[in-house]
């Protein structure tokens, strides 16, 4: 596909209004405006983002709305820049396999989040070869991970911390 198709997949032009902003006037090529367009794709998170909530519960999942948008931004920026090119190749492959765009972005985001977590948790450097391997493993890697998420994602931060305290006290 073309560069235009890749960029439209990363962040399509907006329509409608959010917070009094006509999304049609936002330019996805501008990173700040791209962020606004990404946020607009998540109307279910608007209130949480506006009030600074650190956790929201959607269906059986607890998530951090700011982190969720940040992962979308990283994926969109990588797709926009075509760096690494395997991001777009994987997005095309997953789309051709029948996955819808937003789910593909989440799959790509799972690879990104592993890199971000490694950098934050242990100062690990960006591992492009690992990224390539994880992208190549999609969707199977995503599907296997998704089976493990329901319990962990259904608990809020307080529940997870209490469980961790119980484990530490037991040892």
> What value does the Rg take, in angstroms?
17 Å
User: What's the overall average pLDDT, rounded?
Assistant: 87
Strand order of the largest sheet: 1-2
The N- and C-terminal alpha carbons lie at a distance of: 55 Å
Number of separate strands: 4
Number of domains: 1
Largest sheet: 2 strands, antiparallel
String of helices and strands: HEEHHEEHHHHHH
What can be said about this structure in brief?
The chain has 171 residues and is mainly alpha-helical. It is 66% helix and 6% strand.
Describe, in plain words, how this protein is organized in 3D.
- By secondary structure, the protein is mostly helical.
- It has one domain (3-170).
- Helices cover 66% and strands 6% of the residues.
- The protein has nine helices and four strands.
- It has helices at residues 3-10, 31-40, 46-51, 65-81, 85-96, 101-122, 128-136, 140-154, 157-170; strands spanning 17-18, 21-22, 56-58, 61-63.
- The strands form two sheets. The chain has a two-stranded antiparallel sheet.
- Strand 1 (17-18) and strand 2 (21-22) form a beta hairpin.
- Helix 2 crosses helix 4 (65-81) and helix 5 packs antiparallel against helix 6.
- It is globular.
- The model has no long low-confidence stretch (mean pLDDT 87).
């Amino acid at each position: 596909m073309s560069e235009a198709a890749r960029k439209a997949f990363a962040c399509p032009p907006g329509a409608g209004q959010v917070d009094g902003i006509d999304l049609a006037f936002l330019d996805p090529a501008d990173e700040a405006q791209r962020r606004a367009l990404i946020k607009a794709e998540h109307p279910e998170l608007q209130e949480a983002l506006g009030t600074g909530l650190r956790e929201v519960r959607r269906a059986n999942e607890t998530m951090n709305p700011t982190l969720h948008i940040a992962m979308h931004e990283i994926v969109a920026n990588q797709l926009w820049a075509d760096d690494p090119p395997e991001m777009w190749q994987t997005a095309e492959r997953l789309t051709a396999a029948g996955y819808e765009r937003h789910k593909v972005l989440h799959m790509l985001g799972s690879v990104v989040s592993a890199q971000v977590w490694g950098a934050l948790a242990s100062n690990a450097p960006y591992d492009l070869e690992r990224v390539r391997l994880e992208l190549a493993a999609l969707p199977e890697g995503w599907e296997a991970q998704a089976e493990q998420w329901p319990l962990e994602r259904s608990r809020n931060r307080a529940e997870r911390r209490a469980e961790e305290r119980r484990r530490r006290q037991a040892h």
